[in-house]
Amino acid sequence: MDYRILSEKAIAGEALSREEARAVLETPDDRVLELLDAAYAVRHKFFGRKVRLQMLQNAKSGACQEDCGYCSQSAVSTADIKKYGLLKKSQMVEAAKRAAASKAIRYCIVISGRGPLDREISEISEAVREIKGSVPVQVCCSLGLLTEDDARRLKAAGVDRINHNLNASERFHPQMVTTHTYQDRLTTIGNARAAGLEICSGGIAGMGETDEDLIDLALSLREVRPDSIPMNFLHPAEGTPMEGRKHLTPQRCLKVLCLFRFLHPRTELRVAGGREFNLRSLQALALYPADSLFVGGYLTTPGMPAAEAWKMIEDLGFEVDTVGAPVPVE
Ligand code: SF4
């Protein structure tokens, strides 16, 4: 495989064939640098050397009734995590200020649960109004399943973007969760888009899915056309149904990111949850295909502090994007 052919196709806006996508995931470990070089050509074309930072706040933790096998907050998890109800408005606003001080371009309010209560939408909306009036940060919300009315209320409050991940291929989805369907996810994404919200939707690698599942997920996301794709790597927390699934290597994570870069050349691609746990000493290399990362931790696990991420980015010769403007395409 000549990986440069894949960069040329991606830059020209052509989708990889299934065979080419398979070849990316089957890249021998001693050719990963060649693969990264090809993916970087695409990333550089559309995003230059900029890296967008994002920070999230778990605004309501644990006690969820859903059974997502990867999640330590689910009804079937016995993981030892903090559990609390919706944070106060002042706490959500303070966290947004911390995100801005961390040079995060976007702050994401996340709550556990199948979907938000009416009261929760109202309280989150109030917090978002205050954030948008006083903190220089974009706001994303990840609140579970949404009706179109929920989405419109959030949009009216100033929310910029909704995160709702497909997470897996349609085929693998029932092995991951049984309390909601793949179609429920698509419906929520459609409702958010109908309300005029930007869409963030990605997936999780390492749950036991096949290469074909990952390729299907990447292709399904081409139909969704999200504004950003968070690629998570399973952190198999003790007490969750997926605790024994340690399938990932750092090289495997890099190959997955390259696949998503080739199939989503112009889309913000975030190396998301599980980065520190799975990529370990190779984390910096993830920024050759990806142009975005989280700082300051995840929902129930700690992550790299912002200052360390800034240093990693500087050491790579990249720069933190504090504006979020698209790189002009020649
Ligand atoms: S991912 Fe969300 S919906 Fe699924 S179990 Fe966790 S908190 Fe509940």
What order do the helices and strands come in, and which of them pair?
Layout: H1 3-11, H2 18-25, H3 32-47, E1 50-60, H4 89-101, E2 106-111, H5 118-134, E3 138-142, H6 148-157, E4 161-163, H7 173-176, H8 182-194, E5 198-200, E6 203-205, H9 211-224, E7 228-233, H10 250-263, E8 268-271, H11 275-279, E9 292-294, H12 306-316, E10 319-320
Parallel strand pairs: 1-2, 1-9, 1-10, 2-3, 3-4, 4-5, 6-7, 7-8, 8-9
The structure holds iron/sulfur cluster.
Notes on the structure:
By secondary structure, the protein is α/β, with parallel strands linked by helices. The chain has one domain (3-317): TIM Barrel (Alpha-Beta Barrel), CATH 3.20.20. Helix content is 41%, strand content 14%. The protein has twelve helices and ten strands. Strands 1, 2, 3, 4, 5, 6, 7, 8, 9 and 10 form a ten-stranded parallel sheet that branches. Helix 9 packs parallel to helix 10 (250-263). The longest helix is centred in the middle third of the chain and has 17 residues, at 118-134. The chain is globular and about 55 Å long. Bound molecules: iron/sulfur cluster (SF4). The site of iron/sulfur cluster has 10 residues, from loops.
